[in-house]
UniProtKB/TrEMBL annotation, chain A:
Biological process, per Gene Ontology: transmembrane transport
Keyword Nucleotide-binding appears in the UniProt entry: no
Species of origin: Aliiruegeria lutimaris
Keyword Transmembrane: yes
Sequence ranges assigned to domain ABC transmembrane type-1 in this UniProt record: 69-280
Protein name as it appears in the record: Sorbitol ABC transporter membrane protein /mannitol ABC transporter membrane protein
Stored InterPro entries: MetI-like, MetI-like_sf
Annotated localization: Cell membrane
Location, primary (coarse class): membrane
One CC-aspect GO term: plasma membrane
Length: 290, 277, 439
């Protein structure tokens, strides 16, 4: 049905986006790759001799590297698990008839609008501070030792903060999916004597499958590069307990000013992200088949 | 075939959902309360904070005295709206072409676009910083607008694409039969049908751009600094500062929160990414 | 295509607005320490007098360092004036990244000679002055006279050992009444926890590098020092100490939560200021403790104003620098904020001012403490570097930050002291090898 003319005009219409994105990807990326082969420290300007694979060697042997990989994985899967399961529960709950649904929904989605720096600072100071924070006060009132969140359970604290921000997003998408479910189908199943777990497992969950993959895809994109929350709360510590890959690259390129190693890290992260992207795309691509 | 729902179960649902909703909302509510307290009251035990009778707006005054809120606010508005509109301008033709003139590689192109979003920004900061320095774009709104447009472009294209896909092709064909040009087709037929989808795309991207905290902190310092920079100056305490931090936080998130609430119907309606058929 | 044209026009308009900056608008990057906040408060007077305007960029210390270093090293030119310290100034100055301020000596009104020689030396490289100080500091011990009295403890008059200090802290530790025995920095960062730990390690006889630049972090001395630190903080420190930097501890101390605190002398005017502190009249000071040696037991630092070489507005910036560190400026702080709030450790004339001596009798103690610091001999054993709480080489920031993180991990129990120091040693060896100091 598409004519030759419309094909070429389509190509014309798509080209600005493609060219811009290509440029956006290629120009900095090729500079990053170039830098990753130089001995280039911001604090030692002047000569930037060719360094071969040296920077990659230093990056891979960085004692923080394996920890950062594990932390990234823990952070992403932790938040994904909490938000997906929590989102399904919230969606199921909000889908039920109740009073004041509008108000409740407004309250549930609010955290999604909060900027990461603000939520990091607010949780750190007003809630998780062991002396003056609310949790510390409550523990004190109950006669318990207050929890030093960022000292004792740093990663769990970060996961909690990030999940708080992303749970509304998962809830919204899953709720919309759930609401589009054909009620008659559900009622028919109920009449046939299907129990609620069965209805959930065989009707609702498959119906939400697409939405769940979308939630996972979008969140993964954002969670892989979590940065601000870590910067304002733990600075990657204590030790390297909350250093994810993004933060490690930040440390080497901007706190140690070693652009060469930071770039090598950037290249590694880009390759890893693309591997993740590849698998996610296959999964979502199948599910989305456009 | 409506079912009768007992008021009792409705009450139960309301109570459960209400409690959970309140818990989700509580941190925001709490900083709203603290922002109207004196610094001395703000660090008291939670119940004492609630029942201390002094309410004051002095923290807002102190925050404003320190950095000009309106300037940062205008920067945030300009940058988030600007990057979204600019992105829309580029994304609409691309999404249109992919949705209505699909080629063999369309899906690959779309997936590739989305994968560019996965590049960790830190990995390319120094190159971008150097390019910006050479083009004099550091600390300019144009520079930041462009960067935020680029990082959100894949999302915009994808969202628009999924909406366009849902528009039945027959309508377009009918328009074409009637002799509509491509331009007329886009403006008079397609756009009105895609308005809800575009509305939610715009809203989501304004939110994302408003809250973006890596590039905006690295590439701006003062002239183009948006509200993320405004709040960053409170990341280290100075004496008692809970009330001031709360006030600054409320000032930074209030505009987008209010916009989000008022437009939540539009936002939610379109926020499906093609996940709902 | 009307829409597109309109939008392009719109974006062009945005760019026009964004690039047409007013000629005399300068951007200053600063931390939010109390003395800088006072400067922000008073700066409108300079703006009125000169017609120029100032954009303040206020950032947390670690972030400020990262932003300013990135900008100055790439020649970004985002800032016209930066607050930097005794560590960066000589290194950056030697690289030609800062505008020399030697012509300040020609200004009789400014009277450069009035600024302590020691401080000027710390802010110079190769005989050129690259920054002017707002204040300088060493470290000493803040203590609460009321708490000491209640516990029946005498404040020491001579320099005591850290062991004696720990005994003293144990006696005044009273968490039931909300007073912790001691507050020390725990927040990771070379300018945060390492500022306290550096002198502590010096006292225990430790050093960063030996004469061949071999890192010494796995030595017995470091182990003793860090074990002492972790025990002290876990037994007598406030909860959540690993998140506390200078400003956090200052807030805790001013709020009456700490009995002792070894930190910057420059915090004294704020802590003793009844307007800003609840413990103003019950705070006094004694020397920072020693252990096996008293070399390098008090740090040296100064926060100073410098102009990046990439600034296009150096003349206006210089004018502000002169204003902000002039005799008149300190006088103005004295008149508006009270003489107790005047920044210390820079100008001889300020330290001799009777108004200051009356409001802040401790000013003399501070001056003497600063004069007793010898950055060239910071340790028990000879070392190839200068600097008390830092090592004046560019690589130190990265190493110091990493070691700081490891010690924070040891403090929270995420790692043992041995693990933390072994990791630190490995990292330091890596960095020094990378930089070519050692093979």
């Amino acid at each position: 049905m598409a004519t030759k003319a419309s094909r070429s005009s389509a190509r014309l219409m798509i080209s600005p986006a493609v060219i811009l994105l290509l440029g956006w990807m290629i120009i900095p990326l090729s500079m990053t790759i170039y830098f990753s082969f130089l001995r280039y420290n911001l604090l030692q300007p002047g000569s930037t001799p060719f360094a071969g694979w040296e920077n990659y060697y230093w990056f891979f042997t960085d004692p923080s590297f394996s920890a950062a990989m594990v932390n990234t994985l823990v952070l992403v899967t932790g938040v994904l698990t909490i938000t997906t399961i929590g989102g399904i529960c919230f969606a199921l709950l909000l889908d039920r008839p109740m009073f004041g649904q509008g108000i409740i929904r407004i309250m549930v989605i609010a955290p999604f609008f909060v900027m990461p720096t603000v939520s990091g600072l607010v949780w750190k100071n007003m809630f998780m501070n062991p002396v003056n924070g609310i949790f510390g006060r409550i523990a004190g009132a109950l006669g318990m030792q207050p929890v030093d969140f960022f000292g004792q359970i740093p990663m769990a604290s970060i996961i909690l903060i990030v999940s708080w921000m992303w749970l509304p997003f998962a809830t919204l998408i899953l709720l919309t999916a759930l609401q589009s479910l054909d009620q008659e189908q559900l009622e028919a199943a109920e009449m046939d004597g299907a129990s609620w777990p069965n209805r959930f497992w065989f009707i609702m969950l498959p119906h939400m499958a697409r939405a769940i993959t979308v939630v996972i895809l979008i969140q993964t994109i954002f969670l892989l590069s979590i940065f601000a929350e870590i910067l304002v709360t733990t600075n990657g510590g204590p030790g390297v307990a909350t250093t994810n890959l993004t933060y490690l690259i930040y440390v080497s390129s901007l706190l140690q000013y070693d652009v060469g190693i930071g770039s090598a890290g950037g290249v590694v992260a880009i390759i890893l992200a693309n591997i993740v992207a590849f698998f996610l795309m296959r999964m979502i691509g199948k599910n989305l088949d456009a | 075939m409506a079912r009768a729902i007992s008021t009792k179960s409705k009450m139960f649902n309301t109570a459960t959902a209400g409690t959970l909703g309140f818990l989700m909302f509580f941190p925001i509510l709490w900083i709203l309360i603290l922002s109207f307290k004196t610094e001395e009251d703000a660090i008291r035990a939670p119940l004492e904070v609630l029942f201390s009778s002094d309410w004051t707006t002095e923290s807002y005054g102190a925050v404003q005295a320190r950095s000009d809120y309106f300037k940062h606010f205008m920067n945030s508005v300009t940058i988030s709206v600007g990057s979204t509109l600019l992105g829309l301008l580029i994304a609409i033709p691309a999404a249109w072409a992919m949705a209505f003139v699909p080629a063999k590689r369309t899906k690959d192109v779309l997936m590739w676009m989305l994968s560019t979003k996965m590049l960790p920004p830190v990995g390319v900061l120094i190159p971008i910083y150097l390019i910006f320095r050479d083009f004099g774009l550091l600390d300019t709104r144009v520079g930041l607008t462009f960067v935020l447009m680029m990082i959100n472009l894949p999302i915009i294209i994808w969202m628009l694409y999924t909406y366009f896909k849902e528009i039945p092709g027959e309508i377009l064909e009918a328009a074409r039969m009637d002799g509509a040009t491509l331009r007329e087709e886009v403006i008079y037929v397609l756009t009105p049908m895609a308005i809800p989808g575009m509305a939610s795309t715009v809203l989501l991207n304004i939110i994302l751009a408003w809250n973006e905290a890596f590039w905006s902190l690295q590439l701006t310092s003062s002239n183009a600094a948006p509200l993320t920079q405004f709040i960053a100056s409170y990341s280290s305490p100075e004496g008692l500062f809970y009330a001031k931090l709360s006030a600054a936080s409320i000032m930074a998130i209030a505009p987008i929160l209010i916009m989000g609430w008022f437009s939540q119907k539009q936002l939610v309606r379109g926020l499906t990414f093609g996940a709902v058929k | 295509m009307k829409l597109r044209t309109a939008m392009l026009a719109g974006s062009a308009l945005v760019s026009a607005v964004a690039t047409s900056a007013i000629a005399e608008e300068i951007t200053i990057a600063t931390v939010n320490n109390a003395d800088m906040i006072v400067m922000q408060k008073l700066a409108p007077k300079w703006e009125e007098a000169t017609g120029n305007t100032i954009n303040w960029v206020v950032l947390e210390e670690n972030v400020l360092r990262q932003r300013t270093t990135t900008d100055i090293a790439t020649g970004g030119g985002s800032f016209d004036i930066m607050f930097i310290g005794a560590y960066e100034t000589p290194i950056w100055g030697a690289k030609g990244w800062l505008t020399p301020l030697d012509d300040f000596a020609d200004d009789a009104d400014y009277d450069l000679e009035d600024i302590f020689q020691l401080v000027r030396n710390g802010l110079s490289a190769d005989g050129h002055l690259y920054a002017v100080p707002l204040y300088s500091e060493t470290s000493f011990t803040f203590y609460r006279t009321d708490v000491f009295e209640k516990a029946g403890v005498e404040a020491p008059t001579e320099q005591i050992t850290y062991d004696a200090f720990a005994e003293l802290v144990a006696k005044v530790h009273d968490p039931e009444n909300g007073v912790y025995g001691t507050c020390q920095r725990g927040k990771a960062g070379w300018g945060e926890n390492m500022a306290f730990i550096g002198p502590l390690a010096n006292a225990f006889g430790a050093k960063w590098f030996d004469m061949d630049w071999q890192p010494q972090l796995d030595s017995e001395e470091w182990n003793n020092a860090i074990t002492y630190y972790v025990d002290l903080m876990n037994n007598y420190g406030p909860p959540g100490a690993s998140a506390n930097g200078h400003n956090e501890n200052r807030a805790l101390f001013k709020d009456g939560k700490c009995a002792t605190w070894v930190d910057a002398t420059s915090a004294a005017n704020d802590v003793r200021n009844p307007k800003t502190s609840t413990v103003a009249d019950v705070t006094d000071f004694f020397q920072a403790p020693k252990q096996v040696t008293s070399n390098g037991t008090g740090w040296f630092w100064s926060w100073a104003l410098a102009i990046p070489a990439s600034s296009q507005k150096a003349d206006v910036a210089k004018d502000f620098l002169k204003w902000g560190t002039s005799k008149e400026y300190y006088e103005m702080v004295g008149e508006t904020e009270g003489w107790v709030a005047v920044p210390s450790g820079t100008r001889a004339s300020v330290h001799e001012d009777p108004r200051l001596l009356e409001a802040a009798p401790f000013a003399e103690t501070i001056k003497n403490a600063i004069f007793s610091v010898d950055p060239a001999n910071p340790t028990r054993d000879p070392v190839p570097y200068t600097g008390v709480q830092f090592v004046a080489i560019p690589e130190f920031q990265g190493i110091g930050n990493y070691v700081g993180q490891q010690i924070a991990a040891a403090l929270t129990g995420q790692a043992t002291v041995e693990e933390a120091l072994a990791n630190s040693q490995k990292f330091a060896v890596r960095e020094m090898t990378k930089a070519g100091y050692i093979k």
